[in-house]
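Why do we bother with holo predictions? Because pocket geometry can differ from the apo form. Keep that in mind while you read this record for iron/sulfur cluster.
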Amino acid sequence: MSVLNRFTWEELLEAMEREARKRRAPVYEFKKHITTPFHALVAVLLSSRTKDETTAAVTRRLFQRVSSPEELLALSEEELAELIYPVGFYRVKARKLRELAGALIERHGGRVPSTFEELIELPGIGRKSANIVLAHAFGKNAIAVDTHVHRISNRLGIVSTSKPEQTERALHELVPEELKQRLNRTFVAFGQTVCKPVKPLCDECPLAEACPKVGVPATPVRGARSRAGRGRGAQ
Ligand code: SF4
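The structure, written out:
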């Protein structure tokens, strides 16, 4: 069973978006500070192993000081580390950001390239990050598969995969071209607010009736344990 037996892709994304916006998903707040491809690239590097709320606060502060690779490179590694604290691994990321800015200037004249092949050649940018930049900054039909997309696609029965790369390949076959660009942000927002990694809110979920909840442990019925306990004791 798959949620797609009851919803079209368009309906599915709309239902997820509506619920996530109602619950003020942090990813939508974060998006407000991302206005250029350079911002998107920096934000994606900062966001790994960091809560979205923290990335949102740090990007807001950083982008008030820095709006180009040249401006970023003008800061020392220490200044940069101080500016991006407390994102995870802020010292390593300060070094990586300077390397990234240097590569943009040297290889691309200070501009962010708009192809997957060029993006993944940049220091600190992997497959997922490249796809996020392509989808969010350039509006391309790229699918960035992170833990939210991988987990929710499996729970909804859309794919049956064990690795994010398998999920990415499967989704490329399944998602209509014109909707691919929306998928990552919508799934992330829904994963932050409803279909959470631990304890998803199935009781409050607008997809609950159509969702097979693959891999989600059944919620214990309230009072079941005490009733069972009483039953055993009576034997
Ligand atoms: S019903 Fe539960 S598992 Fe399915 S999408 Fe909703 S929160 Fe996730």
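The mean pLDDT is 91.
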